[in-house]
Structure formats: structure tokens, C-alpha cells
């Protein structure tokens, strides 16, 4: 065939046309767009296209908070990519809170401690595990040799589970009674139970079956107790036609979701509870049968309460109208299954024993103790069987010494009071007192006076930054652990946290760290730690429920109301404890706000969680405080102001909120972290920096519900 | 130095003076280019746009320069299709202004998109339902037409014209220009309209949405109309500015009056339509969607009712009235006021249809959005203006843009006394006679 | 009478605002499910990518009569006027980078085709669309948690809630393997926000399938609303409403509340108008 100019042109054009309409062009188009996404030629190309692989689901238990929800982790080739709530788990049955769902962000948190660290001037240097354990055990050996083993103290999040048990055992066999837990709902429940029902008891609330819940500020959907379980119980109200009445100074999420919000002056919840109690007494609304079990001077209490807390007087104190108090009492007393709940906000942190006991008294008065839909007064769930410990002479002597302080805040007080060290060494695990306690400045002062501090933190948080040695722990996604859901639930569940992947850094299980420290000490201590690994210990101490734990992932210890009748001793209340007042004499009252999207105890909220925080709470680096427009006094929405309390001052911005009582300033808890994570730190103010502890006489608890403040 | 390039008989300023001026404006261009590079390199986070303000300064600038660039298609339409020969005295300049406007619009669009490398997807994966698709196709096609319309003028440069091929090409192109002008007018009609459609079809945005004809909301027709009406105002304004800067009269008053008169009638009819549209929208459309008119004008003084008054009355009714009445139209000061107001009016209309639309909350619990452009946005918006100034300066210096330039200025110099006694019309007649 | 067509799905959602606690689990579940990036400052909510955004509404009354409610807002997967698939955003996209799935009712977003003109964002009255103003970046190592089921987006493109389309794909794969490709059981396709919600406030399913909970709650009227011919699928449940229903966007996300002020806040009403139409629901259809 002769190819002339014309046919050549024709061919060329035909080819172009052909290619244009052929699928090839489509393919090329798509390829080029994909190329523009993946090629690292331009800055917007993706660095890391996620790799595909085999998809599996594994279940575990979240231990980021006391809720201990079951979780399901989606993995691609051993790479966890998503956390969701675990269906049919007895605590949460599907659904999880935002912190649990964002759990993977903790794994790769920029502030993680990647290897053991030793203080070096203002900073840290990396050391090996062997060296780190040797330094710690060396120091501990010196303390023992000095004959004052009680100078070793330990602060830990909770007195529950095998890891806590190992720390406690180390202190005991070492010879120190100075074992402290951070104030938590769990510890508050135990204290209240101790005050009213006897030692070793705790209280659970059967929220899922009560038909009228009278909540004294308990943030039932703000993270109180086992958060997801509470969310579920709350949501089921609609189907169950159960009511929730929320008593608190601010229209919290819980108050907004409730059937009725009853605003009350901050810090007067105990008075309102006693006022309701007085009405019930006056109108003979309490259940007769319940009264017979009352001991400790019930008549005295009854007389006193009716005298001090008549509706009119109570109205004056609390700001709730007298008629409303009477109605409320009637309504509560007449409900089929009324339930009063205490523990303001999340129920952790500062609480007043008077308030908790007064609210619990309401439960006693309506006779809901150990009934379905009521309060379960039960012994603390004990499922661990540690081998009998043997204390050598030093330990025995040490254990006879008195605890330096009853609660952790008193420990710091004592340390700060004396010039020579009352504590030589301090262990801190799963606790961040340098951020979480009221007036953390004094906590840091105390830390400075303690010569040797060991942190077991996974993150370089405010407290770890004060440590001399950091023995970094695996995160909950990298380890085994038994976690008990206590936290106010009616049922007791123990779940098994399992490693979802190999540890990504040179970290260790905190249980293993304790065991290796103990083994490096004198035989008097070491002989009590004969396990090779924490896992061996775990299997041993949970032997009674291990089969269930390992097969089902959890063990249900109890679910039904205890069959025994509960004893009620009102002597604490009959003694007429005073209501705690806010410190200072400014006109306004600053109260901390619990916000589900932030974390106030433990570590910090994740980048995802911080991202969900509203711009009426956090704007740039500024925290916004809530005030009623009536309190604004010229302050404008979004405007800057100086917030001053007797403890400190802070620059804040204003958010006008109709849903907060005039005269009250609300500031969210959980901001103002200072560690090295640009996504969550250096945002806003730590409300604890503005509030000082106020010790409740009688209980010794820090019961500062807020503080007097001024805005200018 | 460059005298060989300057049209024969034309007087131009000295070379150093000219290039000093160009360098000054060139610095502004460089500033704009720097901002442009920043935006391409770092992304649109260099702007102050956000998820509420997805369309902002640039889209406004785009719509506005296309609207004022409407002088080109409309003058072309009148000159080539309606055979209003008088307009040949301004058509070259109208085309150049149009060319600048449209090239600038394309430039801004290229800066505005998040993935510039994929800009061509608009053609490749075209969605026929989208007004923006229509805009993209017509805009590109019309830009090609404008380029074709511009070429003969370039070829008339003294040196280029010496090349026989160029001379013949220019001549032949002039001959077929009517075809392109017709195509241009048709394309223009659609893209001006589809730009109006961009706002009018957003039925999720009660501030913008309009009912209409077939697939076209009323804004489609209003945009075309307003571009035809106000575009000539802008052509006249730029001409006036050029005259002031060069210190020469470049277009005869007769031509100016004619164009001003046409513009005046277009503005007046447009503004009647616009008023009807506004009343219908305010009393039928808006209430049917559950809104009170005040909702759209209530948040802040920036977006208050005054904007409606300024756009429609002050910058619509007023210039329309000035330009349709002979006495006011032929008063140079009033005419200048009218063409300035008119240009502002159409730009303000585009401003409202882009920015106020984005600012107004639709969900009852949503908030107003406010936006202040970043310097990068401002720089890239000024960039085309600076480029336009340079292009006008260069074309004026080297191309025979204004056919009447020589005569008008010659006549001025020679017959100053005569001018005083003759009517302007007579001067023009004389000038026209001289050119023929 | 033929049953309503279950062959073409119409996936939708109903969110019980009386149950919603504003906890934010849905937001975070969505972010982690769909590889949504984050940056150091996310407090400018107009530049913060949250496919699921939880709004806070108040009744506007002063203390102590103030009430408040949270309103989670995913993409509404609008079906457009008359339900014909011309949702506000789809009809404007010049590059067909967002499309209406007539078989699912899902409004898709093709990131690699989007060239970032943002017209769709301007057209969406719900602000459900988000632009990637920045390059997505993850702290060192954190990219390991990215899911391969959802492609991460690059700078300069728009993204939005997809009703977790990859979960639909997975459910469809199962349906294929089991022979009936159109049979998607309720439990096989649930979005990440639905499964995360601790309050059980979100119900998701096929609005076309009378067996599905979402259909039972919403009970949509398939015929055009007698008051507004653009509106289809109006709920016959007096407590159910949609956002900006009057615009004719025809969302497939419904909301449920017993509180009147909340239902009223879902749309715009002129003075006195609400009282006239508050008791107007989808018609109990007698034909079709
Ligand atoms: N529609 C509607 N329903 C409501 C409300 C509403 O606002 N609207 N409000 C709700 C609220 S907040 C409340 S508190 C309830 C109130 O509802 P109820 O608790 O039913 O209160 P009352 O209707 O005041 O009636 C209480 C009863 O107690 C009796 N009583 C009075 N004194 C005594 C006493 O000393 N001993 C005994 N044994 N009985 C006594 C009264 O005679 C009366 O029969 O209604 C609730 N129901
Ligand atoms: N004359 C007379 N006076 C009485 C009584 C009586 O029977 N007669 N009863 C007394 C009693 S028992 C009571 S409890 C008080 C009640 O007194 P109030 O507290 O004034 O009760 P209401 O007027 O029923 O409701 C108050 C507000 O709560 C809002 N509201 C409704 N649901 C919610 C919700 O879920 N969240 C929030 N945040 N707000 C909600 C309502 O819209 C209303 O604005 O009145 C007392 N006063
Ligand atoms: S509630 Fe607590 S335990 Fe449950 S998922 Fe959230 S952080 Fe984890
Ligand atoms: S997860 Fe559920 S309860 Fe929480 S904000 Fe979302 S919809 Fe509301
Ligand atoms: S909500 Fe917005 S993005 Fe979603 S379909 Fe409707 S218009 Fe489109
Ligand atoms: S931004 Fe992307 S999806 Fe939106 S209209 Fe433009 S091309 Fe389409
Ligand atoms: S449906 Fe999926 S993509 Fe949409 S908001 Fe919910 S989780 Fe996000
Ligand atoms: Mo009440």
C-alpha cells in the first residue's frame, strides 16, 4: 500500500480519534489523576497510602477509664486500624466512648516515653532497662537499709486489679503503709459505703432499672461511672418511661437530657438532699421497714434535719423553691423505684462526704437498698488470690508505722510541712497528680522535696516530667491485664485486656517492672515475687476466673441485687457535719465543668477528642468560661477577661450561656496540659490551677466544689 | 529607541519614562506572582477562605471582570452583527479590554482551584448539569475568539505589517471577523448567563436561588443583560482613564456618546428587570422557603439593606437615567459619574451574588460567616489588574488601537479656535471625513 | 399490591435527638473509620474536617427555662427536588466528582476526580462538605492506623460523609457471595457512627425496606408532599422531621424529637407559619 500524504494524515487523525474514544484514554486519565495523588512529586501527594491486607477483628477491654468497656479492634495484618465497642459485652454491649474509639492515637502519641529515661539536669537521658531497674532497686535497697521502709510511697489510680495488687504487695513486703490511690468515683463510693454501711463495702447504682433517678449533679452522660453503661441506661429511659431529674447549677448535657433540670446553688447539694429528707420525715414518706435497720442515732438525725432543713430554710440555702422541694420529696418517695445518685460531675476528684452520705441517705429512706432499680450495697468485688505474703522483720516494723496521710492530698501536705524528707522515694503509676489535684503547684513543690521519684507512665505527662526515673509502660493495647468495672455499676464485671499488637517501643508491662524491681531487692521482698513474668502472675492470681477471662474475655462476678439486707448507720450524718464552703470572698463562684469530650483524670484527651471540643470551650489557645448574661457585667461573648481566685489568675475568654446560674462561672476540666503534644497541649487553662483544696472536717477529703472568683 | 515599533505619526512618551512606568507596575505583577507561587506551593490555606466561604474574593473578581469585560462581546455584536459602524472607533480597545478580562478570569480560576493539575477534568469529566461546566466551555471558547479578534490588531503593528503574510492575514481576518463576533456573542451570551446560573441554581441557598426558564434561573438572563449593559461603561471608563494618562483624546465624543447611550438604555431596561426579579424573589421565593427578607440583611452593617440600595438605585437606576438623557449623557462630568457608578454597580452585584450568598446562614441554628481576604488573595487579585495596565500600555504604544487618535489630536492642535465654535458633532464629522 | 421496591436501596438514617447526649463518639468513630486527618489547632470550626458534626441548639430562653439539644449532622444524602437525584451538590459539580447513586441513594465523592472548585460546598446548605485546605499529615508512626478501606484525601479536594460506603461495599460483597446481590440485611450494613453511638441514638438502614427499623420509625410518604411538590419522602411520624425540608433538598437523614421547639428548629418558618403546619405530616397514602 502506498502511503501518501493524505492517507498518512487520515491515519494519524483516525488514530488520534480512536485513542480518544477508546477506554485507553479513560484509563490514562484515571492513572494520571491517581498519579497526581500518590507520586511524591508535589507536596500534596500522600506520604503513606495505607497498605491492604487480611482484615480481622479481635476483642479486648478498654482501660482508659474506670468504665472498662469491651472493645473490638479491627486489624489489617496485625496492624490495628479501628476500635469499636464490643457487642454483647456485659458493660457496654456495643458502643464506646470517643476516647476509647480514639485509643489508637495513644499508641502513637508524640508524648510517649519510648525507652527508660533517667533525669539529667532539666532533661532526661535514655538508659537501658537493666540500668534503670538497678538504679531503682539500688535506691530502694538504701532506704530499707536505713531502717525506714515507710519512706517509700506509691500513688496509683485505683486499688483494684492485679497490677495495683503487685504495687501494693511490693510496698507491703518492703515495709511501707504509704500506698495511695487518686480520688476516684470508686474510692468515693467506698468511703460513702464505709460511712453508712460499714467497712469493705461499696455502692452500685442500678440505673438501668430505676424509674425515677434523682441525680445530685452526677454527670450521667458526662463520663460518670462507667460512661458507656450510663449512656445506655440513660437512653433506655425513653422506652422504660423512666424519669431523670438533674440537680445542678448548670444546664449540663445531663441536665439538658433530663426530664427536669433543677438548678441549685453550687455546693448546696447536701443541703438539698437533707431538705428532701426532712420533707419525707415530716410527711411520713419514708418506708417504715427501712427505718428499723437504721442505727447510729436516727432519731437525733431526724430531729436535727427537720429543724435545720425545713423547706423554707433549705430553699434559702439552695435556691430551690420550698414548694418545689416538697413536691420533689413527694415525687421521689412515691416513685416505684426511685434512685438518688451522688458524685458530682464524673464522681471523681473533690467530693464532700456529707453530700454523698446525705444523698445515699435518701436511698436508705426510700428503702431501695439491694433492690432491683435501687442501690446495691455490696462488699468490694474480690476476685484476686495473691499467695500469702511473708513480711521480714524490716517490713513488719515498717507496716506498723502510721500512713503519712490518710489521702494523697494529705501526703503532699505532710511532705511540704517538714523540712527533712518524710518520703525518700515515690512510685507513681497511672496517675497524674501534678495536673489533676487541686493547686498542682503545691504537688510539684512536694515532688521537689522527694529525693527519688519513679514514674511508670507511658507518656511524658506533667507528673512523669517531675520523675527521676521513668520505666515506661505498655499502653492498654499492648498488654494483658485484668480490669474490673466498678465505678457505680450495679453489676461487677472483670474483663481481660489483651495485647492487640507487639509493643511498638522499648516499654514493659508495669507488672513486669514491679516484679523485676522486687526480684532485685533483698530476699525478704523478692521471695514474695516468684513469678517469672506478669502473665504468669496474672494467670495465677485470677485462677478462680481465669477460664472465663481467657475464653469469654470477661467474668461476670455479680449482677443481681445482693440478697442480704444492708445495715445503715447514720452516726456520721447525725454528728451534723458542716457543709463545705467555697474558699475566698469574691462575689462569683468558679466551678469546674466535666465535658465528655475531654478527660479530667488520667492522661489527656486524644487529638481526635480535642478536635470535637466546641469553639465555645476552646478557641485557638484560649479557654472560654461560661457565665450567665446576667453575670456578664459588660463582658462580651468571645471577649477576653481576667479570672482571679484566691489561688491564681488566668486569662480567659467569655462564653455567655443562658443555661448557667447567674453568679456562677463554669470552666471546663481537662485543658491546659503542658507536655509535648502539639495536638492536645498548651491549650487553655488547667482549672485545678485556680482552685485550692478545701478539707472537709470529719472526712479529711478535699471537698472543694469550686472557689470564689472574680472576672474583670 | 523603540521608535521603529511605534505606529506612524503617533506621539509616545520617551522610552525610559515608559519603561520606568512598566517596571513600577511590573513590581506589582511580581508581588502577585509571588503570592501565586505561594498558593500553588503551600495550597489554598494561604487564603482566608474556609468551609463556609468556599467562594470568595477570587470568584467575585472573576465574575466582576467577566461582567465588565462584557463590553467586548456587546460592542462586537453591535459593530459586526448590527452593523453600527461608528463603533469601529472603539472596537479594537473593547477587544483588548475583553482579552485582558478573560485571560485574567482564566488565570484566577487556575489559581482558585484546589488541584490545578486536574483543572482539565472539567472538560474531561464534564457534568452537563453543572453551570460551571457551561462556564468553563464557553469561557475557554470565547477566550479563543477574543484572541482571534485581537490578532489582526497585533499584526497591524508597523513592523509586523511589513511582512506580507501578516498583512494579508490581518486583512483577511478583518473580513471574516463578523463570523467570530457572532460566535463570540453567542458564547458570551451563554457564559455570562451560566455565571449567573452558578448562583441561581443553588436551591439550597435561598439568598441566591431563583426560578426561571427551562434549566436557567432568572439570574442567567440578568447576568448576560447586566454584562451587556455595564460592560460598555467599563470600556468607556478605561478609555477615559487612558485618555487622562496619555493626555490625548483617543475616541471621538460621537462614538463615546453613542456607546454611552446604548449602555444607558441597556442599564435602564436591565435595572427594571432586576427590580422585578428582586421584588419577586423577596415576596414570593424567599417567603415560600420560610425566610423573612430581613434575615438576609440583618446580621451586620456590611451586609445590610444599604447594599441593596447602592446596587440597584445608586449604581443602577442613577447611571441608567444619566445615560439615557441626552443632556446628562453629554455632560462629561455626569457621564463620568455614570460610568463609574455603573461599573461599581455591576461589580457590587457580583459581590452580593458570591459573598453575601456564602455569609448568610441557612439552617436556623447556624451562624453568619465573615471573611476578610488574605494578602495573598489580594495580591493575586491585583495581579491581573497590573497585567492589564501593562498590556494596555504596550498595545497603546505599539499598536494602532485608536483609529481616531491622530485626527483627534491633530484637529485639536490645529483648530483650537474652530473647535470652540463648532459643535462636537461637527468635529467628529470632520475627523471621520479625514480618516476616510 | 406490590411491596415497595426493595431492589433499589435508599439508605437513610434517623437520629433520636432526645437520646443524643452530644458525647461525640459518632464524630470520632467517623474520623477514625474514614482516615480523617487532624491538625494542631482544630478550634476554627470552619476549617475543621468533621464529616459528622454535632451542633448544639438552644431554645433561646433565659435561665432557668433554657433547654438545649445536640444535633449530629452527617451528609444528608439529599435526593434533590422531587427525589430525582439532583442533590444541591451533585448537580453543580462540573467534573462529576460527586454523584448520586440511584441504586443506594448515597451521594458519593470521588477524591481523585475532584479538582477543588468548591462549588459543591457553596451549594450545600448543611455545610456537610469539607475542603482539604492543608496537606494531611500524621505524627510519626500514626499513619500505621490508617484504614485501607478508605482512601486518604490529598490537599485541595473536597470530602464528606459517605454513609461509610466501604461498609456497603463489604455488605454487597457478602450479598453477592450468597447469591442475592440485592439482599442487604440490616445488620450487615451499619455505619461507623451508628455502631459507635453509646446512646443508640442513630438508626441506620434501608428506607425502602419495610422490615428495617429506619423505615418503621420514619414511615416515609413516597408521594410528593401536598404542600410542596418538591418534597418527597416526608415522614408520617409526627415527631420526625428533616433539616430544611422546605428547600426541597430531600435529605435521607431524619431526626426524631418529642420536643416541639426542636422540631421547629429544623427548618425556617415565618411568623405564625409553624402553628399552621406543625401538624402536617406525610400523607397516609391510599394509592400506589
Ligand atoms: N401534665 C403534667 N404532669 C406532671 C407535671 C407537669 O408539669 N405537667 N409535673 C410533674 C411533677 S414535677 C410532679 S412533682 C408531679 C406531681 O404529681 P404528684 O406527685 O401526684 O403530686 P400532687 O399532684 O401534688 O399530689 C400528691 C398527692 O399526695 C397527697 N398528699 C399531700 N400531703 C401528703 C402527706 O403528708 N402524706 C401523704 N401520704 N400524701 C400526701 C395529696 O393529697 C396528693 O394526692 O407531677 C408530674 N406530672
Ligand atoms: N402552683 C403550683 N406551683 C408549683 C407546683 C404545683 O403543682 N402548683 N409544683 C411544684 C413542683 S413539684 C415543681 S417540680 C415545680 C416545677 O417548676 P418548673 O421547674 O418551673 O417546671 P415547668 O414549668 O414544668 O418546666 C420548667 C421548664 O423546663 C423545660 N423543660 C422541659 N423538659 C426539659 C428538659 O428535658 N430539659 C430541660 N433543660 N428543660 C426542660 C420546660 O420547657 C420549662 O421551660 O413547680 C412547683 N410549683
Ligand atoms: S468509657 Fe472508658 S472504658 Fe469505655 S471506651 Fe470510653 S474510655 Fe474506654
Ligand atoms: S454518638 Fe450518639 S449520643 Fe453521642 S453525639 Fe453522636 S449521636 Fe449523640
Ligand atoms: S447534605 Fe450537602 S453534601 Fe450532602 S447531599 Fe446534601 S447538599 Fe450534598
Ligand atoms: S470541589 Fe470537587 S466535588 Fe466539589 S464541585 Fe468542585 S470538582 Fe466537584
Ligand atoms: S455514615 Fe459513616 S461517613 Fe457518614 S458520618 Fe457516619 S461514620 Fe461518618
Ligand atoms: Mo416536681
Could you spell the SSE succession of chain B in H and E letters? Answer: HHHHHHHEEHHHHHHHHH
Query: How many β strands of chain B by DSSP?
Result: 2
CATH architecture of chain B: Up-down Bundle
Across the major sheet of chain B, the strand order is 1-2
Q: How many separate structural domains of chain B?
A: 1
Q: Would you identify the CATH architecture of chain C?
A: 2-Layer Sandwich
The CATH topology of chain B: Formate dehydrogenase/DMSO reductase fold
The amount of helix of chain C comes to 10-25%
Sum up the overall morphology of chain C in one term: globular
The hetero molecules present are: ligand MGD, iron/sulfur cluster, molybdenum atom
User: Cα distance, first to last residue of chain B?
Assistant: 31 Å
- At CATH level 3, the topology of chain C is Alpha-Beta Plaits
Q: How many H/I helical runs of chain C?
A: 8
Q: CATH superfamily name of chain B? A: Formate dehydrogenase/DMSO reductase domain
Net shape of chain B: globular
What's the N-to-C terminus distance of chain C? Answer: 8 Å
Main sheet of chain C, how many strands, which sense, barrel? 4 strands, mixed
Q: Can you identify the CATH class of chain B?
A: Mainly Alpha
Strand content of chain C: 5-15%
Summarize the structure.
The complex is a heterotrimer of chains A (712), B (436) and C (288). Helices cover 72% and strands 1% of the residues of chain B. Chain B is mostly helical and 436 residues long.
Amino acid at each position: 500500500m502506498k502511503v501518501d500524504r493524505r492517507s498518512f494524515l487520515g491515519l494519524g487523525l483516525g488514530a488520534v480519534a480512536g485513542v480518544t474514544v477508546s477506554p485507553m484514554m479513560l484509563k490514562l486519565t484515571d492513572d494520571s489523576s491517581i498519579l497526581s495523588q500518590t507520586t511524591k512529586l508535589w507536596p500534596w501527594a500522600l506520604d503513606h497510602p495505607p497498605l491492604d491486607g487480611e482484615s480481622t477483628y479481635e476483642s479486648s477491654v478498654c482501660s482508659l477509664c474506670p468504665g472498662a468497656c469491651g472493645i473490638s479492634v479491627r486489624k489489617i495484618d496485625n496492624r490495628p486500624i479501628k476500635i469499636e465497642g464490643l457487642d454483647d459485652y456485659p458493660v457496654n454491649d456495643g458502643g464506646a466512648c470517643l476516647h476509647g474509639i480514639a485509643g489508637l492515637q495513644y499508641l502513637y502519641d508524640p508524648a510517649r516515653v519510648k525507652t527508660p529515661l533517667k533525669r539529667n539536669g532539666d532533661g532526661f537521658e535514655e538508659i537501658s532497662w537493666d540500668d534503670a531497674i538497678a538504679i531503682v532497686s539500688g535506691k530502694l535497697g538504701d532506704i530499707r537499709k536505713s531502717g525506714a521502709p515507710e519512706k517509700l510511697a506509691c500513688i496509683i489510680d485505683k486499688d483494684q486489679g492485679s497490677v495495683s495488687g503487685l504495687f501494693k504487695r511490693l510496698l507491703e513486703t518492703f515495709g511501707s503503709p504509704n500506698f495511695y490511690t487518686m480520688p476516684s468515683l470508686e474510692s468515693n463510693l467506698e468511703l460513702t459505703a464505709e460511712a453508712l454501711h460499714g467497712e469493705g463495702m461499696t455502692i452500685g447504682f442500678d440505673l438501668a432499672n430505676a424509674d425515677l433517678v434523682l441525680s445530685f449533679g452526677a454527670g450521667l452522660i458526662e463520663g460518670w461511672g462507667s460512661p458507656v453503661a450510663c449512656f445506655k441506661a440513660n437512653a433506655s429511659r425513653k422506652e422504660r418511661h423512666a424519669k431523670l431529674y438533674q440537680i445542678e447549677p448548670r444546664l449540663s448535657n445531663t441536665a439538658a437530657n433530663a426530664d427536669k433540670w433543677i438548678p441549685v446553688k453550687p455546693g448546696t447539694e447536701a443541703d438539698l438532699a437533707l431538705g428532701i429528707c426532712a420533707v419525707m420525715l415530716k410527711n411520713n414518706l419514708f418506708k417504715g421497714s427501712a427505718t428499723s435497720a437504721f442505727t447510729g442515732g436516727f432519731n437525733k438525725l431526724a430531729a436535727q434535719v427537720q429543724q435545720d432543713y425545713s423547706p423554707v430554710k433549705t430553699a434559702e440555702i439552695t435556691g430551690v423553691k420550698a414548694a418545689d422541694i416538697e413536691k420533689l420529696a413527694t415525687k421521689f418517695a412515691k416513685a416505684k423505684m426511685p434512685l438518688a445518685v451522688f458524685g458530682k460531675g464524673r464522681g471523681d476528684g473533690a467530693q464532700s462526704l456529707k453530700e454523698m452520705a446525705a444523698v445515699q441517705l435518701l436511698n436508705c429512706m426510700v428503702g431501695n437498698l439491694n433492690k432491683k432499680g435501687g442501690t446495691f450495697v455490696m462488699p468490694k468485688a474480690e476476685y484476686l488470690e495473691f499467695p500469702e505474703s511473708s513480711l521480714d522483720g524490716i517490713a513488719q516494723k515498717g507496716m506498723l508505722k502510721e500512713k503519712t496521710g490518710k489521702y494523697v492530698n494529705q501526703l503532699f501536705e505532710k511532705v511540704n510541712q517538714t523540712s527533712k524528707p518524710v518520703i525518700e522515694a515515690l512510685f507513681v503509676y497511672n496517675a497524674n497528680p501534678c495536673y489533676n489535684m487541686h493547686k498542682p503547684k503545691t504537688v510539684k513543690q512536694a515532688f521537689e522535696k522527694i529525693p527519688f521519684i519513679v514514674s511508670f507512665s507511658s507518656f511524658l505527662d506533667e507528673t512523669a516530667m517531675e520523675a527521676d526515673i521513668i520505666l515506661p509502660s505498655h499502653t492498654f493495647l499492648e498488654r494483658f491485664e485484668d480490669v474490673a468495672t466498678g465505678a457505680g455499676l450495679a453489676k461487677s464485671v472483670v474483663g481481660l485486656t489483651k495485647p492487640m499488637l507487639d509493643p511498638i517501643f522499648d516499654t514493659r508491662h508495669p507488672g513486669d517492672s514491679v516484679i523485676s524491681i522486687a526480684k532485685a531487692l533483698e530476699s525478704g521482698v523478692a521471695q514474695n515475687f516468684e513469678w517469672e513474668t506478669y502473665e504468669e502472675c496474672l494467670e495465677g492470681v485470677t485462677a478462680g476466673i481465669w477460664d472465663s477471662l481467657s475464653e469469654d474475655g470477661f467474668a461476670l462476678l455479680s449482677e443481681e441485687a445482693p440478697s442480704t439486707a444492708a445495715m445503715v448507720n447514720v452516726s456520721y450524718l447525725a454528728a451534723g457535719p458542716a457543709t463545705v464552703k467555697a474558699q475566698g470572698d469574691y462575689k462569683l463562684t468558679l466551678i469546674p465543668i466535666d465535658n465528655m469530650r475531654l478527660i479530667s483524670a488520667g492522661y489527656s484527651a486524644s487529638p481526635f477528642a480535642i478536635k470535637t471540643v466546641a469553639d465555645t470551650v476552646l478557641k485557638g489557645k484560649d479557654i472560654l468560661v461560661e457565665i450567665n448574661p446576667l453575670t456578664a457585667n459588660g463582658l462580651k461573648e468571645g471577649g477576653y477577661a481576667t479570672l482571679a481566685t484566691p489561688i491564681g489568675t488566668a486569662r480567659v475568654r467569655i462564653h455567655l450561656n443562658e443555661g448557667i446560674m447567674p453568679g456562677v462561672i463554669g470552666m471546663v476540666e481537662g485543658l491546659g496540659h503542658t507536655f509535648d503534644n502539639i495536638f492536645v497541649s498548651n491549650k487553655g487553662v488547667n482549672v485545678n490551677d485556680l482552685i485550692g483544696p478545701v478539707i472537709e472536717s470529719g472526712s479529711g477529703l478535699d471537698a472543694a466544689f469550686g472557689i470564689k472568683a472574680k472576672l474583670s | 529607541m523603540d521608535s521603529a515599533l511605534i505606529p506612524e505619526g503617533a506621539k509616545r512618551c520617551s522610552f525610559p519614562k515608559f519603561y520606568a512606568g512598566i517596571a513600577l507596575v511590573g513590581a506589582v505583577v511580581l508581588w502577585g506572582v509571588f503570592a501565586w507561587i505561594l498558593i500553588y506551593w503551600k495550597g489554598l490555606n494561604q487564603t482566608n477562605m474556609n468551609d463556609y466561604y468556599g467562594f470568595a474574593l477570587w470568584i467575585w473578581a472573576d465574575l466582576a471582570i467577566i461582567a465588565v469585560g462584557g463590553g467586548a462581546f456587546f460592542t462586537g455584536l453591535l459593530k459586526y452583527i448590527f452593523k453600527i459602524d461608528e463603533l469601529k472607533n472603539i472596537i479594537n480597545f473593547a477587544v483588548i479590554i475583553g482579552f485582558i478580562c478573560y485571560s485574567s478570569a482564566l488565570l484566577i480560576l487556575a489559581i482558585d482551584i484546589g488541584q490545578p493539575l486536574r483543572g482539565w477534568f472539567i472538560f474531561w469529566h464534564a457534568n452537563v448539569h453543572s453551570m460551571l461546566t457551561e462556564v468553563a466551555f464557553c469561557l475557554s471558547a470565547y477566550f479563543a475568539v477574543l484572541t482571534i479578534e485581537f490578532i489582526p490588531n497585533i499584526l497591524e503593528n508597523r513592523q509586523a505589517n511589513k511582512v506580507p503574510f501578516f498583512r494579508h492575514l490581518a486583512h483577511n481576518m478583518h473580513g471574516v471577523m463578523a463570523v467570530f463576533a457572532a460566535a463570540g456573542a453567542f458564547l458570551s451570551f451563554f457564559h455570562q448567563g451560566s455565571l449567573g446560573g452558578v448562583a441561581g441554581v443553588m436551591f439550597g441557598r435561598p439568598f441566591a436561588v431563583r426560578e426561571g426558564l427551562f434549566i436557567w434561573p432568572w439570574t442567567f438572563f440578568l447576568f448576560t443583560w447586566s454584562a451587556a449593559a455595564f460592560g460598555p461603561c467599563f470600556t468607556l471608563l478605561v478609555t477615559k482613564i487612558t485618555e487622562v494618562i496619555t493626555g490625548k483624546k483617543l475616541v471621538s465624543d460621537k462614538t463615546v456618546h453613542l456607546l454611552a447611550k446604548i449602555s444607558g438604555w441597556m442599564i435602564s431596561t436591565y435595572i427594571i428587570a432586576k427590580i422585578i426579579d428582586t421584588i419577586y424573589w423577596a415576596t414570593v421565593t424567599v417567603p415560600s422557603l420560610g425566610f423573612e427578607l430581613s434575615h438576609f440583611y440583618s446580621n451586620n452593617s456590611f451586609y445590610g439593606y444599604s447594599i441593596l440600595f447602592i446596587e440597584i438605585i445608586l449604581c443602577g437606576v442613577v447611571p441608567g437615567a444619566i445615560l439615557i438623557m441626552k443632556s446628562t449623557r453629554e455632560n462629561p462630568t455626569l457621564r463620568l459619574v455614570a460610568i463609574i457608578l455603573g461599573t461599581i454597580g455591576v461589580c457590587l452585584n457580583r459581590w452580593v451574588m458570591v459573598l453575601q450568598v456564602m455569609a448568610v446562614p441557612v439552617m436556623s441554628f447556624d451562624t453568619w460567616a465573615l471573611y476578610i481576604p488574605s494578602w495573598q488573595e489580594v495580591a493575586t487579585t491585583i495581579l491581573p489588574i497590573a497585567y492589564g495596565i501593562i498590556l494596555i500600555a504596550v498595545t497603546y504604544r505599539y499598536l494602532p488601537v485608536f483609529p481616531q487618535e491622530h485626527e483627534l489630536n491633530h484637529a485639536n492642535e490645529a483648530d483650537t479656535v474652530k473647535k470652540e465654535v463648532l459643535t462636537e458633532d461637527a468635529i467628529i464629522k470632520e475627523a471621520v471625513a479625514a480618516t476616510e | 399490591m406490590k411491596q415497595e421496591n426493595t431492589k433499589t436501596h435508599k439508605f437513610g438514617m434517623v437520629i433520636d435527638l432526645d437520646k443524643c447526649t452530644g458525647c461525640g463518639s459518632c464524630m470520632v468513630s467517623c474520623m477514625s473509620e474514614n482516615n480523617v486527618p487532624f491538625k494542631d489547632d482544630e478550634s476554627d470550626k470552619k476549617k475543621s474536617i468533621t464529616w459528622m458534626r454535632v451542633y448544639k441548639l438552644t431554645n433561646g430562653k433565659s435561665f432557668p427555662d433554657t433547654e438545649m439539644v445536640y444535633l449530629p449532622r452527617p451528609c444528608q444524602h439529599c435526593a434533590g427536588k422531587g427525589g430525582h437525584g439532583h442533590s444541591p451538590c451533585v448537580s453543580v459539580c462540573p467534573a462529576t466528582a460527586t454523584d448520586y447513586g440511584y441504586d443506594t441513594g448515597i451521594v458519593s465523592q470521588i477524591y481523585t476526580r475532584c479538582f477543588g472548585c468548591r462549588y459543591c460546598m457553596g451549594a450545600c446548605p448543611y455545610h456537610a462538605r469539607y475542603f482539604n485546605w492543608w496537606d494531611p499529615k500524621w505524627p510519626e508512626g500514626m499513619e500505621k492506623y490508617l484504614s485501607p478501606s478508605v482512601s486518604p484525601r490529598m490537599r485541595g479536594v473536597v470530602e464528606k460523609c459517605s454513609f461509610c460506603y466501604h461498609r456497603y461495599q463489604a455488605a454487597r460483597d457478602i450479598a453477592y457471595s450468597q447469591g442475592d446481590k440485592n439482599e442487604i440485611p440490616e445488620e450487615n450494613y451499619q455505619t461507623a457512627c451508628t455502631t459507635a453511638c453509646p446512646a443508640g441514638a442513630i438508626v441506620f438502614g434501608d428506607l425502602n425496606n419495610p422490615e428495617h427499623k429506619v423505615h418503621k420509625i420514619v414511615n416515609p410518604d413516597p408521594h410528593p408532599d401536598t404542600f410542596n411538590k418538591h418534597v418527597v419522602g416526608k415522614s408520617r411520624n409526627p415527631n420526625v422531621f428533616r433539616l430544611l425540608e422546605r428547600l426541597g433538598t430531600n435529605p435521607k437523614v431524619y431526626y426524631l424529637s418529642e420536643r416541639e421547639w426542636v422540631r421547629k428548629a429544623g427548618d425556617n418558618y415565618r411568623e405564625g407559619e409553624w402553628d399552621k403546619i406543625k401538624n402536617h405530616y406525610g400523607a397516609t397514602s391510599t394509592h400506589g
